[in-house]
Amino acid sequence: MSVGLEHYLVLSAVLFCIGLYGALSRRNAVVILMCIEIMLNAVNIALVGFSRYIVPPLVTGQVFAIFIMVVAAAEVAVGLAIIMTLYRSRETVDVEKMDLMKW
Amino acid sequence: MAFDIVFWILAVVSVGTALAVVLLRNVFRAALFLVMCFFTVAGLFVTLQADFLAAAQVLIYVGAISILIIMAIMLTREFWRGSQAGRLRVSALVAGLLLLGVMVFVIVNTSWQISEEPPKVPTTAAIGSQLFGEGGFLLAVEIAAVLLLAAVLGAIALIREK
Prior knowledge:
CATH architecture of the largest domain in chain B: Up-down Bundle
Distance between the termini of chain B: 60 Å
Low-confidence stretches of chain A: none
Number of strands of chain A: 0
Largest sheet of chain A: none
Shape of chain A: elongated
Oligomer: heterodimer
Mean pLDDT of chain B: 89
Order of helices and strands of chain B: HHHHHH
CATH topology of chain A: Helix Hairpins
Number of helices of chain A: 3
Strand content of chain B: under 5%
Number of helices of chain B: 6
Radius of gyration of chain A: 17 Å
Helix content of chain A: over 70%
Shape of chain B: globular
Number of strands of chain B: 0
Largest sheet of chain B: none
CATH architecture of chain A: Orthogonal Bundle
Number of domains of chain A: 1
CATH topology of the largest domain in chain B: Four Helix Bundle (Hemerythrin (Met), subunit A)
Strand content of chain A: under 5%
Low-confidence stretches of chain B: none
CATH class of the largest domain in chain B: Mainly Alpha
Radius of gyration of chain B: 20 Å
């Protein structure tokens, strides 16, 4: 069976679930941010795969992927600034110790 | 046939590096594996004939985002403690596997309407006319610009010494 849309979608699903597992199970906030980047990349693969196999002349999937890249860049800038601020005040990036807003 | 071999190599390497990012205890090595993962995703974009996106992936992810992450790892000096697993590890694994099962089931059982038309290569002109042309995504482009500005200002406001 030659490689088609399903292969790209399954690969995208596998990468997304690896990122989801990491984001839920790790304690280091920077690693959680890295796992979120993996999840965003997985979504990009799915979008570009749809764009290539379902509507090749329109490149809407690739345009959406560009917007996801923009949002990922903004997210990583703000996320790392928050992590650095927390590290400065609490000397840790362990999310289980960031319980300031826990009731 | 060569296309299939390239796809399988890229798929195996990307899944392996993503697993390394999640499972390695050394945060710095995890970040280096993340760079490798971004590179393989750029290669997957090339196999999907998305040349502009592959270049943007290398520039933005491999060039900018990974450097930011590595700088954050260096500045937090937390990597000697490593990336430990939290208390939610088992339930996170169950949630991930459940989601994976559901998604693979849906993907395999849907009859996708594959178009036989050849894709446009190079895609740069097509993407440009979609973004800026008539009936395109011009409003979204302007909102994205505002979002980037707000994100940069917010990051500066957060990180500034009081």
